[in-house]
């Protein structure tokens, strides 16, 4: 049994901070330590106490850096790793012009495997230890994704997108093949190691009613599998959806009619919601997912976080690469802050860091396993350096509180602020640093 100790300034959340003064929402230990055993956090405490408990353990001293739970990205597209930063279009044109052609390439297992290595390198470089991804329509993309996750010991969620219309040749399945392929992938991957399969009808526009019916059957047969899709991201998308499903009361109703809206459903974007949709979301326990960099980049609109939270709805926050423009959850929180500013909503840094860790874990129903530094949970940890760049170090000279330090990380940080990442207790960033060019 190998035991290791990580020493540093520990920050972990117990619930969403109500405001910047809500000290009961988190634990901060200035000279803290985590005792890691078998990939789990066995003990958390003051360094002196942990050192007495495990005098033989190897100690890695990260002071004065912050140790937090690894970031969780609740909405990202694995096959868009080479779509990110594609110019000049809003959602539907962007999909047709850039995204769909690129996703056709993931039919090739070699391409998918090479991209998976690069994708996971990027997640780790940016401090993300768990993500929920849309793979392409091809089972080969899912195989590559989960095989790479397994190789790295990462808790990853994902699934093949279901799409049988309004997409080019080579990127459509059928209701039956969608059912067969998804069922086989669930049997192989769901619950294997740290993998979780997510039933993934892409969105209403790319699925026929027959396929939506099949998605509903898959959802019924696999209640433990989360469901992910897209909802009310863009005005043209909403109008087109209404024309394709004229009997639906609104966009959400399309998914409701097929049994796809439940407590473990993730709905990307959810920007332009009607009052009835908000009520139905609240009643279902489903989770909207805020994708700030994507919403700005594609000109989609401004997410109403407080409006939804006020109805008791728990939202996730995510990058949505490649509509999103960064793998960094720090940059995502920064852009999220700016969007909420435009809505007159002030996101406190304590709330922001809780969102990217514990709250996103709660959105995935995994708060007992990831998202905190609690004993018994996985040792998926990020080490944050608020002085990572000269500009950050200058600003930090004037920082007087933990909240100010967090806000510097949020507003100025990116992958350079991620000093190290631990996956199930093993250092993962140093191991892959500089590997990008070799893999490509
Ligand atoms: N809606 C359906 N597919 C997608 C996608 O790939 N990206 C975004 N941002 N929205 C979508
Ligand atoms: Zn998306």
Topology:
Blueprint: E1 3-13, E2 26-37, E3 40-46, H1 47-53, E4 58-69, E5 71-77, H2 91-103, H3 109-125, E6 128-134, H4 139-152, E7 157-159, E8 161-162, H5 175-189, E9 196-197, E10 200-201, H6 209-221, E11 227-231, H7 235-244, H8 251-257, E12 265-269, H9 275-284, E13 287-290, H10 292-297, H11 305-309, E14 316-317, H12 329-342, H13 349-363, E15 381-384, H14 390-396, H15 402-412, E16 418-423, E17 426-427, H16 429-432, H17 436-439
Parallel strand pairs: 1-4, 5-6, 6-7, 7-9, 8-10, 11-12, 12-13, 13-14
Antiparallel strand pairs: 1-2, 2-3, 4-15, 15-16, 16-17
Helix pairs in contact: 3-4, 4-5, 5-6, 12-15, 13-15, 14-15
The chain binds guanine and zinc ion.
Tell me what the structure shows.
With 440 residues, the protein is of the alpha/beta class. It folds into two domains: 3-70 and 370-439, Urease, subunit C, domain 1; 72-363, TIM Barrel. Helices cover 39% and strands 21% of the residues. The protein is built from 17 helices and 17 strands. The protein has helices at 47-53, 91-103, 109-125, 139-152, 175-189, 209-221, 235-244, 251-257, 275-284, 292-297, 305-309, 329-342, 349-363, 390-396, 402-412, 429-432, 436-439; strands at 3-13, 26-37, 40-46, 58-69, 71-77, 128-134, 157-159, 161-162, 196-197, 200-201, 227-231, 265-269, 287-290, 316-317, 381-384, 418-423, 426-427. The strands form four sheets. Strands 3-2-1-4-15-16-17 form a seven-stranded mixed beta sheet. Strands 5-6-7-9 form a four-stranded parallel beta sheet. It has a four-stranded parallel beta sheet with strand order 11-12-13-14. Strand 2 (26-37) and strand 3 (40-46) form a beta hairpin. Residues 435-440 have low confidence and may be disordered. The structure holds guanine and zinc ion. Guanine (GUN) binds at residues 77, 91, 95, 99, 202-203, 230, 233, 294, 320, 323.
């Amino acid at each position: 049994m190998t035991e290791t100790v990580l020493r540093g300034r520990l920050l972990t959340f117990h619930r969403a901070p109500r405001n910047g003064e809500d000290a009961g929402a988190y634990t901060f230990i200035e000279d803290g330590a985590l005792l890691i055993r078998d990939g789990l956090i066995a003990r958390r405490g003051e360094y002196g106490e942990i050192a007495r408990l495990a005098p033989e353990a190897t100690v890695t001293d990260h002071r004065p850096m912050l140790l937090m739970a690894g970031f969780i990205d609740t909405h990202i597209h694995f096959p868009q790793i080479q779509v990110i930063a594609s110019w000049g279009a809003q959602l539907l044109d962007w999909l047709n012009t850039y995204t769909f052609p690129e996703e056709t390439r993931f039919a090739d297992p070699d391409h998918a495997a090479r991209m998976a290595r690069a994708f996971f390198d990027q997640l780790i470089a940016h401090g993300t230890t768990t993500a929920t991804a849309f793979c392409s329509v091809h089972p080969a993309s899912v195989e590559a994704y989960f095989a790479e996750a397994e190789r790295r010991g990462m808790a990853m969620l994902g699934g093949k997108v279901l799409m049988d219309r309004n997409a080019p040749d080579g990127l459509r399945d059928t209701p039956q093949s969608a059912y067969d392929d998804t069922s086989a992938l669930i049997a192989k991957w769901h619950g294997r190691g740290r993998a979780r399969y997510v039933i993934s009808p892409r969105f209403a526009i790319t699925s026929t009613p027959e396929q939506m019916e099949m998605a509903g059957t898959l959802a019924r047969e696999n209640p433990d599998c989360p469901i992910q899709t897209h909802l009310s991201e863009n005005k043209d998308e909403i109008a087109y959806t209404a024309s394709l499903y004229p009997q639906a009361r609104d966009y959400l109703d399309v998914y409701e009619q097929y049994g796809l809206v439940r407590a473990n459903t993730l709905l990307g974007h959810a920007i332009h919601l009607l009052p009835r949709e908000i009520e139905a979301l609240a009643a279902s326990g489903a989770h909207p997912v805020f994708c700030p960099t994507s919403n700005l980049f594609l000109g989609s609109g401004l997410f109403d976080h407080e409006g939804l939270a006020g109805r008791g709805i728990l939202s996730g926050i995510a990058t949505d690469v490649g509509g999103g423009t960064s793998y960094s959850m720090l940059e995502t929180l920064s852009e999220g802050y700016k969007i909420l500013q435009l809505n007159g909503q002030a996101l406190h840094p304590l709330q922001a860091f809780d969102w990217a860790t514990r709250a996103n874990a709660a959105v995935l129903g995994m708060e007992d396993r990831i998202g905190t530094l609690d004993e018994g949970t996985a040792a998926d940890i990020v080490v944050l350096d608020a002085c990572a760049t000269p500009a950050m170090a200058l600003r930090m000279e004037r920082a007087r509180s933990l909240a100010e330090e967090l806000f510097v990380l949020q507003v100025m940080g990116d992958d350079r602020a991620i000093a190290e990442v631990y996956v199930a207790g093993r250092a993962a960033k140093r191991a892959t640093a500089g590997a990008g060019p070799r893999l490509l």
